[in-house]
Amino acid sequence: MLMLDDPLNCVCANFRRAARHVTRQYDAALEPSGLNTGQFTTLVALQRTGGMIVSELADLLGLERTAMTRNLRVLEKDGLVLRELGEDRRERRITLTRQGQNRLEQAQPLWAKAQSRLIAAIGSDDAIQLLNRLRVFA
Predict the structure, then answer these.
(1) Which domains does the chain have, with CATH numbers?
(2) Could you point out which of 40, 111, 112, 124 has its C-alpha 20 to 30 Å from the C-alpha of 28?
(3) What pTM did the predictor assign?
C-alpha cells in the first residue's frame, strides 16, 4: 500500500519527475523541427489567440513574466514571433510570424506522434482522466 506520509511519495517530487520524463520525450520528438516543448506550446498559444501581450501569454502558459520574456527572445531572434508595442505603450504584443506559422506546421505532426505514443502507453480513458486531474493544479 502507498504510504502518503513517506517523503519518497511526495506529490511534488513525483510531479516533477514525471514532468521531466514526459518533457524529454516530447523534446526528442520535436527535435527535427528545431523547437522544444515550451517553444511549441508558445507558438500554439499565439496561433490560437492571434497574438497576446507578454503577461497574458505567461499566465496562460503558467510561467513567470520574466521567464516568458526570456523564452520569447529566442523565438524572436529566430524570426518565429514578432514583438510590437501594445495599445498601452508599456505592453508588448507578441504575434506569430509567417516563419513561425511554417515552423509550427512542421512541428505539429511530430507533436501528434509523441502525444499518440503517450496516450497509447496509458490508454485514452486514463489520459483524459489524468488531464482532468492535472487541471486541478494548473
Answers:
(1) 36-133 (1.10.10.10)
(2) 124
(3) 0.89
DSSP letter at 91? Answer: S
Rounded Cα distance, 66 and 56, in Å: 12
Taking the CA atoms of 121, 135, 66 and 106 in sequence, report the sign of the dihedral they define. Answer: positive
pLDDT tens readout for residues 61-109: 999 999 999 999 999 999 999 998 877 777 889 999 999 999 999 999 9
The answer to whether residues 95 and 51 touch, using CB atoms and an 8 Å cutoff, is: yes
For the stretch 35-63, what's the b/e string if a residue is b when 16 or more beta carbons lie within 10 angstroms of its beta carbon? bbbbbbbbbbbbbeeebbbbebbbebbeb
Joined together, the cell numbers standing for residue 32 give: 527535427
d(CA 111, CA 31): 10
Measure the CA–CA gap between 80 and 104, rounded to whole angstroms: 9
